[in-house]
Specification:
alpha+beta, three-stranded antiparallel beta sheet, 16 strands, disordered N terminus
Length: 323
């Protein structure tokens, strides 16, 4: 995928020799844009080398895991071609198996044909018959995983991408960073010397631009973490007066139907945050609350419909600084 990566000085302290030196790298990736903000004070790698390395990482991810790049390892494997799986593919598949086990099958990257059948995968089909759903369920999913299984890593790919970029930045000595590749990993301090803040979008239909309509703002504590929001307000369609969300429960084969509108998860890494935000959207409000509270490694913020109005629930450690 072609990308135009730009780099410019974002913020400098008054004394360049003593204070932080923040730069921002931006470009196009995974069908959207990415932005990486970082403090390069004391980092030996030059800004242009950092930009080039990030670009190379995102190219590798695209040619490995993208279902939209027809020449990627994933696409070629899904098409039945004999391919050699690289370490990245093996790693994300291993993580996917773990998520499948933890969620009792509610997060299943081998359920790709279900997403295709409903028009939310790599095809444009929609409204499949119950017979077709039953037929797909009988052969797809992790429980039937084999060489010819169709995989779809969309539920974790962007979070995984943020983690891979963050890992590279750690390797060159960056400690203050915000990596946004559709999903976010942040660590350390922002240019103002405070922990990073992230806006949580209000889950209203038509709110397609991040930051356009804000429900609240979360602030970190400086520790590295992934922050991911999943919701049904940007990807859905309506047919015959009924709304069909892009969140498919792979256990039933059907789009979910409940009052949870969005789930924001904070985890130690963006891959986990991405996976468990999706999981919460599959299981709905009550189960999502219980799941978050059962995990000391997670914090969550759930926005849901309450008799026609929006309501919010936050776990005890979710640091919402404004609404």
């Amino acid at each position: 995928m072609k990308r135009l990566s730009l780099i410019f000085l974002m913020a400098l302290s008054v004394s360049c020799s003593k204070g932080p030196e923040y730069i921002q790298v931006t470009g196009q990736a995974q069908g959207g844009t990415y932005s990486v903000k970082m403090n390069i004070k004391g980092v030996k790698a030059k800004p242009e080398a950092i930009r080039s390395s990030i670009d190379s990482i995102l190219t590798l991810i695209d040619t490995t895991l993208s279902g939209y790049n027809k020449k990627s390892i994933l696409s070629r494997r899904n098409a039945g071609e004999a391919v050699v799986l690289n370490d990245m593919f093996k790693n994300i598949l291993k993580r996917s198996r773990e998520y499948f086990d933890v969620t009792g099958g509610a997060l299943d990257v081998a359920a790709g044909p279900l997403f295709d059948a409903w028009g939310f995968g790599f095809t444009t089909d929609s409204l499949p018959s119950s017979e077709k759903i039953d037929s797909i369920l009988s052969v797809c999913g992790m429980k039937h995983l084999g060489e010819h299984s169709v995989l779809n890593f969309n539920s974790i790919a962007q979070g995984y991408s943020a983690d891979v970029v963050a890992s590279y930045l750690h390797s060159v000595g960056v400690r203050d960073m915000l990596v946004d590749i559709g999903e976010i990993y942040c660590e350390g301090l922002n240019p103002n010397g405070k922990p990073w803040t992230i806006a949580i979008d209000r889950p209203v239909d038509g709110n397609v631009f991040p930051g356009q309509d804000i429900d609240g703002i979360w602030q970190g504590n400086g520790a590295g973490c992934g922050v991911v929001t999943s919701g049904n307000y940007r990807k859905f369609y309506e047919k015959d007066g009924k709304k069909y969300s892009h969140t498919i429960d792979p256990r039933t084969g059907y789009p979910v139907s409940h009052n949870l509108l969005s789930a924001t998860i904070v985890a130690s890494n963006a891959t986990d945050a991405d996976a468990f935000a999706t999981y919460c959207m599959v299981i709905g409000l009550d189960e999502a609350k219980s799941f978050i509270l059962s995990r000391p490694d997670l914090e969550g913020y759930l926005i849901y419909d309450s008799l026609g109005s929006m309501a919010e629930w936050a776990s005890p450690g979710f640091n919402l600084i404004s609404k």
